[in-house]
Design brief:
With 421 residues, this protein is an alpha+beta fold. It contains 13 helices and 19 strands. The longest helix has 17 residues.
Length: 421
């Protein structure tokens, strides 16, 4: 029996056991880590409440504490229960690859910091030192740090609507961004660059290393972290392992439609359709199309949390990690998102008394992806978290239930008093 099967929502059974998959072998008992089991259990109940909205056909969650997995679970279906889907329901596995969307930015930024560590770049270098044509229209002073911190003043390309096919034309995208006029030439105002900065970041990496991003990703991150995926796009033979993404809940209307177009350049519906398009899955979009499991995304942030080391293997130096997560300027109103934000060179930072990652998360660093995909680490709580999902919605109940998940995580892993700043 279903609670609802209406248009724009996933089918949610009263008994969630058939839609639940738990990697018991991976999970460490709460008591072994000095945690209260009731509070850890409350996190999963909050995730079940989020799933109960029908706004997310598929959800995966991995939380680590003290470097050990506390929760590794999936809720929903790989296929068969999304809006408009037919056929048998295929349960989702916790190790299913899911697109990180804009959380891809933080992973791509790690590649930049790896190159900096190797002596190939400096954060204070100018982008034009490596892409001379980027200096057009007064952009010659933009630094790598400003580019990674959304201060390059080219958050969108005027009069251009992004399409999946356009994403295939790497050189064309770079050329348009080089020719774009900045909205200010002081480069101190932050305005979220949803897709644009990623191409310039990627081009800097390509020109400086003379290697392609997928190769750098595999050698510098995926292999050291033991990841099967963590790739730009997804190979054709692997695509049946990844759930599709869906617009869910009420259909967006103005002013939400205008806001969505301001941020990503297209409507909610067009963005989701693009993400399920073969062109999107077959190319490299540094700011938006990394595919990974929740476990793999969590490994990236656990490595950063542990000062650049993962399971005894050195991936980055501690000084590199500290620089990567250090704030770039103070909190200010973001000119694209129209909300107060703090960034580092590649990461969205938490805040007190309540931030992107829940209550009291000023030391947290991570990134959001298309509204509700969330990957972050919080040194104050010694946790890394990857919450991946496939529903894209502006329904208030979805945001309220997501806030409930964040609050439950905060209660289960209280911040150390000596770590608050």
């Amino acid at each position: 029996m279903f609670l609802f099967t209406g248009h724009g929502r996933a089918a949610v059974p009263r008994d969630l056991s058939a839609h639940t998959s738990i990697d018991h072998a991976a999970e460490t008992p709460a008591a072994d880590l000095g945690l209260k089991r009731k509070r850890v259990d409350a996190i999963w109940r909050a995730v079940e409440c989020l799933y109960g909205t029908g706004l997310h056909p598929a959800i995966t969650l991995v939380i680590r504490h003290q470097g050990r997995i506390v929760l590794k679970r999936a809720l929903g279906c790989l296929s068969g229960n999304g809006p408009g889907e037919s056929g048998p329901q295929r349960p989702l596995h916790p190790d299913a690859p899911i697109c990180l969307f804009s959380a891809s930015k933080s992973v791509t930024a790690v590649l930049v910091h790896k190159l900096i560590e190797q002596g190939g770049l400096r954060l204070e270098d100018r982008v034009a030192d490596y892409i001379p044509e980027f200096a057009a229209h007064g952009k010659g002073g933009v630094t790598i740090r400003q580019l990674l911190a959304h201060r390059a003043a080219v958050p969108a390309i005027p009069n251009v609507t992004p399409t999946p096919e356009m994403l295939r034309d790497w050189d064309g995208a770079v050329r348009m961004l080089c020719e774009a006029k900045p909205f200010n030439t002081r480069f101190k105002k932050q305005a979220y660059h949803a897709l644009t900065a990623g191409f310039i970041v990627g081009e800097v990496l390509r020109r400086r290393t003379r290697r392609e991003l997928p190769v750098l990703m595999r050698e510098w991150l995926a292999e050291p972290l033991g990841c099967q995926y963590l790739t730009y796009g997804l190979a054709p033979e692997l695509r049946d392992r990844a759930p599709a993404h869906h617009c869910t809940g009420p259909r967006p209307t103005w002013p939400i439609t205008a806001y969505a177009k301001r941020v990503v350049g297209v409507s909610f519906e067009d963005a989701i359709n693009a993400s399920n398009n073969e062109a999107f899955q077959s190319t490299v979009v540094p700011a938006g199309n990394i595919y990974a499991t929740a476990d793999e995304a969590g490994r990236v942030f656990q490595m950063l949390l542990d000062g650049g080391e993962y399971q005894g293997r050195r991936v980055l130096q501690p000084d590199t990690v500290r620089e990567a997560v250090s704030p770039v300027g103070r909190i200010q109103l973001d000119g694209t998102l129209m909300m107060p934000m703090r960034y580092s060179a590649g990461f969205m930072l938490g805040e007190n008394p309540f931030g992107l990652y829940g209550p009291g998360t000023r030391r947290a660093f991570g990134h959001l992806g298309f509204v509700t995909v969330m990957c972050w680490a919080d040194p104050a709580r010694d946790i890394s978290v990857a919450l991946l999902n496939t529903g894209k919605s502006i329904a208030p109940t979805g945001f309220a239930r997501l806030a409930g998940v964040l609050a439950a995580i905060g209660r289960a892993f209280p911040a150390r008093k000596d770590s608050v700043r």
